[in-house]
Every structure is written in structure tokens, then in C-alpha cells.
Amino acid sequence: MTERPLLTADERGAVEAAVRAAEARTTGEIYCVLAEESADYHATPLAWAAGVALLAPALLLMAGIEVTAPDVGLLGGAWTADQVEDVGEASARAALVGALVLQATLFLLTLLVTAIGPVRRALTPPGMKRDRVRQRAEEQFLSKNLHATRERTGVLIYVSAAERMAELIADEGIDAKVPAGTWERPMSALTEGLKRGAAAEGLCAAVGQCADILADHFPARPGDNPNELPDAVVLLPKA
Predict the structure, then answer these.
(1) What confidence score (pLDDT) does residue 238 get?
(2) Domain range 9-40+125-236, CATH class
């Protein structure tokens, strides 16, 4: 079964057309990046596996497992001090080995289960996912030169599909004139599309609403509105 692409060719064309139409109305530059996933969250399986493994002693106690010594009568008489010491060491060793075996088993099983992509993401704290998405968005903002436009009016719309999260970063020329809360509406339209599995629709809606905001503060100037950044949607593989 072929996995569905992040955007089909038609969807990609629709988003690019929305960007061209938006930039015809403003001197701002809108750049869209769609990533499969912003991080591999490799620490999540290890953290869960270690945490579950630490429960082994408690599980043994809850299961009612006890370490017992042989009855005195079975030895044919009273125990000597050496025998008591030997039995005590053997019992402690057996208990320790049992706990270690259970811990290793729990660690490996948990590691295998939590290494599965959807499980790993579900068990990763939302705050960590948000930080990774924001970090990847900032990297893209710089690497795609959105900070190098003539009037510092670049806007990055970054979508991370696996996390179903998005980030919008506006350059300093825009931030100087546009209050931060202004972007909540286009971001809401974008995240709503992601929740419905309609990334292209969400992107188109967000691009259009960003254009409305930019056109108010940075309207297009006839004969002086160069297209400084590509209109194409950038698709990124998993990090």
C-alpha cells in the first residue's frame, strides 16, 4: 500500500497559487514549509523503558513473591552460623537475579513498543513536541533566507504533519507594526485543517488570511513589488 504524500501535486499547486495571489497584494513574502516530522524523539522510548524497568521490584512485591529459606528440619539439625550466612546470600542473590531479569525484560519490551512511531509520538510530552516544532521552524526561517528580504517582511508558515502542529514566524519588519496576537486567526485556520487531515486547505486559508494582514500594513506598490522568495511549497522528510 502506497503511503499518501504530504501534499498531492494538485494540492501543492493550489497552495502555490494561493501564495502567488497573496503576494500580489503585499510587499511581504510568504513561504510555506511542510515537514513529515520535526524530530525523531529518540529519548522517549528510552525514558519510558527505564521508568517501567524501575517498577520491577514493586511488581514482584505486589505479586506476593517471597524469598524463603529451607526448613531447619530438612538439614537434619540446627543450622550453623556458616549455613545461615550461605543461605542468606543465596536467597539475596536469587531475589536480585529475579529482579534484574524482570527489569531487563520490561525494559526491552517497553523499548520495542514505544519505538513504534505513533506510540512514540503519543507518549512524548506535548511541550517537548512544541519545542521541537518551533526549533525546526526557526531553522527553516534562517536557512531559507526569510530574514534577508529587502524590507524584512518575510513570513514563514511551517507545518509539522506527524505532530499536527504549526508555527508562524514573521520577520522583524512585520513585528514592528503587527501585534503578535494578529496571527492567531490564520494559525487557527491552519491547525483546524490539520486536525481534519486537510493540510492543503488549512495552508490556503492561512496564506489568504496572512495576506489580508500584510496588505493592510505592507500594501503592494505598482512597479516595485519583486518576488524575493520562491512560491513553491517546500516538503521536508523526517528529521
Answers:
(1) 75
(2) alpha beta
Residues 57, 36: Cα–Cα separation, whole Å: 40
Q: What is the mean pLDDT of the chain?
A: 85
In the chain, alpha helices (H): 9-23, 43-53, 56-62, 81-114, 117-123, 126-143, 172-175, 184-195, 199-217
Residue 20 CB coordination number (10 Å)? 13
Q: In this structure, what C-alpha cell is assigned to residue 35?
A: 515537514
Residue carrying the nine cell digits 514573521: 170
Q: What does residue 47 show for φ and ψ, rounded to 5 degrees?
A: -65, -45
pLDDT of amino acid 174: 93
1: confidence class by pLDDT, cuts 50, 70, 90: very low
Q: What is the dihedral of CA 187, 192, 195, 198, to 10 degrees?
A: -100
Give the cell for residue 183. Answer: 496571527
Which residues 6+ apart lie within 8 Å of 131 measured at CB?
A: none
Q: Are 212 and 194 in contact (CB under 8 A)?
A: no
User: How confident is the model over 155-173, as pLDDT tens digits?
Assistant: 999 999 999 899 999 999 9
User: Domain extents for the chain?
Assistant: 9-40+125-236, 43-121
Strand 165-170, strand 234-236: pairing: unpaired
pTM metric for this prediction = 0.79
Q: Which residues, 6+ apart, have CB-to-CB distance to 103 below 8 Å?
A: 53, 54, 56
Residue 57 cell numbers, joined: 521490584
Write out pLDDT tens, residues 19-77.
Answer: 999 999 999 999 999 999 999 898 998 898 888 888 777 766 676 655 555 555 544 55
Grid cell 521490584 in the structure block, residue:
57
